[in-house]
Specification:
Layout (H helix, E strand, L loop, with lengths): L2 E3 L7 H10 L3 H17 L4 E6 L4 E6 L7 E8 L2 E6 L20 E5 L8 H12 L13 E7 L9
Parallel strand pairs: 2-7
Antiparallel strand pairs: 1-7, 2-3, 3-4, 4-5, 5-6
Length: 159
């Protein structure tokens, strides 16, 4: 899989991200935008790292500019959007809403952005923030950074 690092562009990162999101069906694009806004409101000092990969558009909310310091990310593909907890396997999940069985990552499929306001999801977001190796900055606003764009990608719209 050939991966191309984000190249300098005359477009702002926000415009580039809007273009990545525009590749999706309107309903999925609307869900991506509303979930991103909700997470930005919840994590205002997080850096947003964007990877327009082969399989997914990944939008990570991180305490630094390193992927390893990611707290949560949105992963969008043609059929929907999921909220990934980078270190989700370590989270207390008493209501068993997290999916996945890997050693590190867990996720929740998002049917709508309002799911992010569910008290159980809010508790997981708070726990993910609290367990971060590098805490989020206490002031300021995180940057939007386009990290990479894959030359080849799966279709972003349903067939």
């Amino acid at each position: 899989m050939k991966k191309k690092a984000a190249s300098p562009s005359t477009e702002s990162p926000a415009k580039r991200l809007a273009g990545f999101i525009a590749k999706f069906d309107p309903a999925v694009a609307a869900l991506i935008r509303s979930a991103q806004r909700a997470l930005r409101k919840r994590l205002p000092t997080a850096n947003i790292l964007v990877y327009d990969n082969y399989n997914f558009l990944a939008i990570g909310f991180c305490s630094t500019e390193r992927t390893s310091d990611c707290l949560v990310s949105l992963a969008a593909y043609a059929k929907g959007v999921s909220l990934f907890f980078y270190y989700g396997a370590r989270l207390d999940d008493p209501h068993r809403i997290l999916q996945g069985g890997g050693k590190r990552v867990r996720f929740i499929r998002l049917e709508r952005a309002a799911t992010l306001g569910n008290p159980d999801v809010e508790a997981l977001l708070g726990a993910a923030t609290a367990q971060a190796k590098m805490p989020l900055p206490t002031a300021g606003r995180g940057r939007l950074i386009i990290k990479s764009v894959s030359v080849k990608q799966r279709p972003r719209r349903s067939a």
